[in-house]
Amino acid sequence: MPAQHTRRAVLGASIALAGTGVLTACAGRDVTADHSAMNHPAPSGTTVPEGYVSPDGPEVAAAEQRRGAGPEREVTLTATPSRLDLGGGHTVSSWAYGDRLPGKEIRVTAGDTLALTLANHLPQPTSMHWHGLALRNDMDGVPGLTQRAVEAGADFTYRFTVPDPGTYWFHPHSGVQLDRGLYAPLIVDDPKEPLGYDKEWIVVLDDWVDGVDGSTPDAVLQELTGGNGHSGHAMQSTASPASGGPSRMLTGATSELLGGDAGDVAYPYYLVNGRVPEDPSAFTARPGDRIRLRIINAGGDTAFRVALGGHRMTVTHTDGFPVRHTTTDALLIGMGERYDVLVTAGDGVFPLTALAEGKKASAMAVLRTGSGAAPGASVRPKELDGELVTADRLSPDASVALAAREPDRTVRMRLTGSMEAYDWAFDRKPYTADQRHPVKAGERVRMEFHNPTAMWHPIHLHGHTFALSGGAAGARKDTAIVLPRQTLTVDFDADNPGLWMLHCHNLYHAEAGMMTVLGYRL
Ligand code: C2O
Ligand code: CU
């Protein structure tokens, strides 16, 4: 495990390199993939913009100091190639945290200091991003922006104060590694938990392709982008994946709920807690138990519509933050989003079904409180077609409502691109690590996302939890769905200095270029 001073020295080196511009020589993914380039002069003249807070700058350290430093929780985690049993006789070779799918949850209490050492046993560089946490910028886990990638065979200790209670998760921020098995929940307990419940059920949803008939997420990206995987390079048009495996391109799948195209990838499997619906994971409770479900969408390209057969759900949180309790039959969850719900368990065996929205498939787990056979894999609880809650229908709990305030600055962005060209971007500019949308500490910032594309996009901002629909009335979120031909307005307080990714949480859109950077001005 590297000592604290070693880690700081490594970070310092990465920032110094950033100044030479080599990190941005080739945009996005290549920063992590071609780390050898970091040791050589920049082939391009790109430079990192000046006048912005640096991830290892004093502003970041000062913000961390204000968070305090509670008891240290030490965790070690290995990212490793792994054989994973998805149930139903399906075993795949993939990559996972600690040989499990999902990775075992990490549980800490708000205010704790998490000290997690990631050992990289993968054949390529990786990183760890703490999705949804307002943590110190240099621990945010974005190679080429906030740190150097963790090289194959190396390890890195992420050490930071965990600010807010709630349901979070972590995953790599390196290429399409997330669409392998590299994801796990991060549960932050509230020292003064106001909710009363008997049991907790963590439910992680995923769409799965890795290791099935030779497919990998990298091959899928290559197929979608027509063989280059990177906008700005010469296009070759190959209709079938370079791997020679089956095509995974999804065309013509639409969803009324999503207002247009449902997704780009036809996954062979949809999973709840790492299992196919034919051989589901089961959660056991007693009739009458109040169960808190923490539902996380770890998928790459799939929105899930979720319902528990025979039950109404009371939504209590989204993206870690409490909302005014709202009862519903079903929820719509985009990639990166989380919902916490309470249910009072009935007596029997019930399907928790996650419909892959618009994709004619579903995932399932089972709630068991009595005897009886497990429901069939294709069961469609009527609740799925009942009342549905989307984030815009929720109000924040009074304790977390953003105070009413006029924005000091409005950042407007267009979500651009198409499935055919696979040129997803903000304002037609594919991601480069030197992009900066400036904000200033202390400002109330409004962001307006206009989506003229034919597809929905789950937009995620690192390091902040914004308020939907611009202000006090909107639920707090870090990831929000922008439907086609709609504009989403969100407000946040710029109170966490650094360089923060803003991107579509459709992994393939992000990798095609739909990412950019919000930078705090000095
Ligand atoms: Cu789950 Cu950049 O995020
Ligand atoms: Cu998108």
Automatic annotation (TrEMBL):
UniProt keyword terms in alphabetical order: Copper, Metal-binding, Oxidoreductase
Official protein name in the record: Multicopper oxidase family protein
PROSITE patterns documented for this protein: MULTICOPPER_OXIDASE1, MULTICOPPER_OXIDASE2, PROKAR_LIPOPROTEIN, TAT
Coiled-coil annotated spans: none
InterPro entries xref list: Cu-oxidase-like_N (IPR011707), Cu-oxidase_2nd (IPR001117), Cu-oxidase_C (IPR011706), Cu-oxidase_fam (IPR045087), Cu_oxidase_CS (IPR033138), Cu_oxidase_Cu_BS (IPR002355), Cupredoxin (IPR008972), CuRO_3_CopA (IPR034279)
Plastocyanin-like domain span: 86-192, 270-369, 406-518
A Pfam short name: Cu-oxidase_3
Span list, region Disordered: 36-58, 223-254
